[in-house]
Amino acid sequence: MKKKLLVLSLIAVFVFSMTACGGGDGGDEASAKTELTIIDGEWYGLDTYQLDSTAGGQGLNSASLFQWNAETGDVADNVCTNWKVSEDGKTATFDVPEGMLYSTGEQVEPEDVIASIEHGQKVSPYNDGYDNIESMEWEGRTVTLHLSEFRSDMLYYFCAGFVIVIDKDELDNMSDEELMWGCHPYGLYALAEDGYVSGSEVNLVRNEGFKCANPLVKNQGAGKFETVKVRFNVEEFTQTEDLKAGNVDILMSVGSDQYLELQDNEDIEMVDTTYPNIAYFEMNTDHDVFSDINVRKALALAIDRDGLAESVDGLIAPAYSMIYDTVQNFNQDAKDWFQKNLANDPEQAKQLLEEAGWKEGKDGIREKDGKKLEFTWYAWTDATTIPEAMAEQLRQVGFQMNIEAIDWNYVYENISADKYDAGIEWLSWAEPMLVLNACHYDKNAPSNTDEYFDMVKKAAHETDGEERTKMVGDIQMYLFENVNMIPMYAELSFSAMNKDLKGFNVLADGSTPLNDLAY
Known about the structure:
There is one protein chain. This protein is of the alpha+beta class. It has 2 domains: about 35-275 and about 495-500, D-Maltodextrin-Binding Protein, domain 2; about 280-490, Dipeptide-binding Protein, Domain 3 (Dipeptide-binding Protein, domain 3), CATH 3.10.105.10. It has 16 helices and 24 strands. The strands form 6 sheets. Strands 9-10-11-2-12-23-13 form a 7-stranded mixed β-sheet, covered by helices on one side. The longest helix has 18 residues, at about 465-480. InterPro entries: Peptide/Ni-bd, SBP_5, SBP_5_dom. It comes from Anaerotruncus colihominis. One of its GO terms (cellular component) is ATP-binding cassette (ABC) transporter complex.
């Protein structure tokens, strides 16, 4: 997924996992305040199967089939329960408990779940994540999936907000266009009558028949509020002032200026809701400077990620592996190896450059055969502070890094066309195979090989989570061998809320089940 395409709406999106509360626990009684007001990214429809991005609060309206438990690295119950996969990875089963009611009063049935997944296979931009399902059937309350092969990314989608439950009758009788705002997904809250104001807000009412089996929330029943107002496309100044005045309960995502303004306000709680993401860069090994692996190593060693974080007031976190710490199947060994061997050592960087024949010039920039150690870095037009800080770090060891700021899509276009020296890239996924399959924009990169993608495919088919984690580490070591793809940092995301609001749960992977919200 590309930088800026989804950055405002996706970072807090695949919302549901393990608990590290911001704002405390939800109360046992109905909330004293009957309406919750949040400002969110824009909602583009209720049928999330048809969407390529959802907003952070959309889990209020539609619950995912399962909950990913990032602490145990496994699937936990939510709407559906008892997820099991056969040893050969060809069959998966789960149950659909009785007693769960849509806002229409109809009960959620196993055939609804099957029809919903089939709908996703037809319309979802992410249907390749579960196109390994060859057929489905149900008996009693148990659903059986017959798979062509096991794929780990299927687990990710089944725990994300893009695989939900919609009544089969609605799927059979509504067009795709009608489903967008006319369906009633199974969730905590449902769209109120005339509740959608195009481009402005969504108004929700409590689904009294909601219940789930999510072990990572305290409230497994109906929401604590009678109504929820979701506002979007609100100017930042207005967002901030409304939160300070008590007119809004939650800002689902705050910008850097808002963060700096609100972080010390005693009436507001700032909560880290960072969804797994990785900012990294590729070096063009066809470029004169970067054709030498020792020069690439020197550049990697010269980067001080903590210094980069300081340059943006701590709004990024250093990253030392392509699969970030909160991604499924994160491998600590791969991170430790990179941090020990390819990071934070400018003196070794200088030594490598000396050995490669690059001698310091009068201006501090190294030269070899009459040519300067110089390259151009493609940066995003709206994010030049970090590359400016990085350029200064590299200058200390003898690199001249020129910055060319262009729109993010042109960065990717130029890298893909092999018309670049080095450039920033960004991915945001909580599942490793989605990162590893998408991280090569340079089609000629030395690690962009059939062998590499075979390794990724084999790992995706591995049913044993511990073995898959080891394989994810091995794949990253394969990437690191060539020193042309360098992890840099994760962008941090924050929500801001009234300090008296309880139960805003943030799980280990940054997802935010909203079941416990209450005053």
